[in-house]
């Protein structure tokens, strides 16, 4: 996939993830600094946990200013223009889904670079896609949303299985990456449009 | 200690720790994916925090599939057969105690390999034994159980002190390991049978 | 700055941070072991997260016994003499502020040693100063205090900006360190004396 498009999607995903944190922090009426922290944690949490598990340190977002500046800008925009940004919820949902797909694939590929097995790579991809939201919810004192609602982590896992399935066929990795991202986005779109979610577990 | 017995105890401990997470997640009515995540975090949380503190990365469970598959199987079994497994609560308690003993000793020995002091090794052993449960409770939005109930971490600490005491005597490390594990199991059994717990602290 | 003074301030900061954890744990009526854990996490949490992000492992407090012993003593003192220690709240506030200033500067300097940018160093300094309190609040099932109350993290950020501003002037680093710490302490003192805090954010 073209580096330029990848950068746009990653930036869009970071912004969408960050905004979901900023809005939730504002609903809990945190002060502006609290909003900035939650924006940060939501946007970089998944990749940070992944990097610390693998031992790839300093973790990615420490290595240059661009991610930090994008997130800072996102938080400030949410604080100033929250009302207007919320009207863009469809755009946000689109980028959030794209971000989820891209972050999952990035996590899988970092796992492969570290020489880990397919199963573990899928776990790392899911961690990258989902743990930012988990940390956001823990800091805001909620049970993580992804444990309770909608197909979310399940989309990462399904995408990961597809990725390694396609890898067996000898298709170029660039294509596999694209197909996996599109697949994850489509699962999300269908799940949200048709309100599909996993049933709650019972302790019969 | 015989490698084969160690493997059985470690597997039993992982399953028992995982089940405690799965059952608590099901009580909170998480969806199946949430149950799987909580099962994972409870079973590998302590060792993961320990490995990240020492810098032994990629952390242990990333390095092959066996731990991940055991935990996945545990979560699925809990989801399907929860009602029946709960009737095995005595077996579960036995493995949970054995797991606590073994995980504590593993943590101590990893600390020694990293050249750390006895005091710090005891802290790492306690972390290995207890932090899976702490993370489980944080994710499920409870104050960690071990801070409030029963002799649990205290058993790890007492075991750790015994371990280093015996080390002074020149007894073979294999024997010390076994004695420490048995000692931790016995403390747990007595504490639970006689409902012994530490008193709550007051802020007079 | 003189090594001896630095050691006194760092020890004082560790004790003050630890006590804030111990008191809050006692208010929640944890058992003594729970109080010790929360004391530990509050005192070393910020530096531990920083070290794990940078990959400087084993993390600092593992490398010798002194920090662990100081914190253990702090927790035991809180449990035994809580009533009397609370009367020292002004002394505690002074050390807490000094600790915040010192921990921030230590975080900045560790970031520089790792070759990271100024912006990222300020983020690491703020993490070092504040994340112990964040982890304390997460474990005790509260929304972190610093997201809701008083100028706290803001003081770290302002101090970090001053630090790098002064670095441009060619002043000796020893002086810059001292000035930054004093500046952070003064911000805290003014904020608390005049009850200055950031306004809550609204999601208009």
Automatic annotation (TrEMBL), chains A, B, C:
GO cellular component: plasma membrane
Stretches that traverse the bilayer: 6-26, 33-54, 66-85, 92-108, 114-139, 151-169, 175-194
Compartments, as annotated in UniProt: Cell membrane
Parts forming coiled coils: none
GO BP annotation list: amino acid metabolic process
Active-site residues annotated for this sequence: 14
Location (main, coarse): membrane
Domain Glycine transporter: 8-81, 94-166
Family of this protein: Belongs to the UPF0126 family. Belongs to the asparaginase 1 family.
Protein name per the record: Putative membrane protein YeiH
Lineage of producing organism: Bacteria, Pseudomonadati, Bacteroidota, Chitinophagia, Chitinophagales
């Amino acid at each position: 996939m073209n580096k330029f498009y990848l950068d746009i999607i990653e930036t869009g995903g970071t912004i969408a993830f960050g905004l979901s944190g900023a809005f939730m922090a504002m609903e809990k009426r945190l002060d502006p600094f609290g909003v900035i922290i939650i924006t940060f944690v939501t946007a970089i949490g998944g990749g940070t946990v992944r990097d610390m598990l693998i031992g790839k340190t300093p973790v990615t977002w420490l290595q240059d200013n661009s991610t930090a500046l994008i997130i800072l800008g996102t938080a400030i925009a949410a604080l100033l223009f929250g009302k207007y940004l919320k009207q863009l919820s469809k755009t946000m949902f689109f980028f959030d889904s794209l971000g989820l797909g891209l972050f999952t694939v990035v996590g899988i590929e970092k796992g492969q670079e570290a020489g880990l097995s397919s199963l573990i790579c899928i776990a790392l991809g899911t961690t990258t896609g989902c743990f930012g939201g988990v940390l956001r919810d823990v800091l805001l004192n909620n049970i993580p949303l992804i444990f309770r609602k909608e197909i979310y982590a399940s989309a990462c896992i399904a995408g990961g299985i597809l990725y390694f399935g396609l890898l067996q066929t000898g298709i170029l990795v660039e294509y596999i990456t694209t197909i996996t991202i599109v697949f994850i986005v489509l699962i999300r779109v269908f799940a949200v449009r048709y309100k599909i979610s996993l049933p709650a577990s019972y302790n019969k």
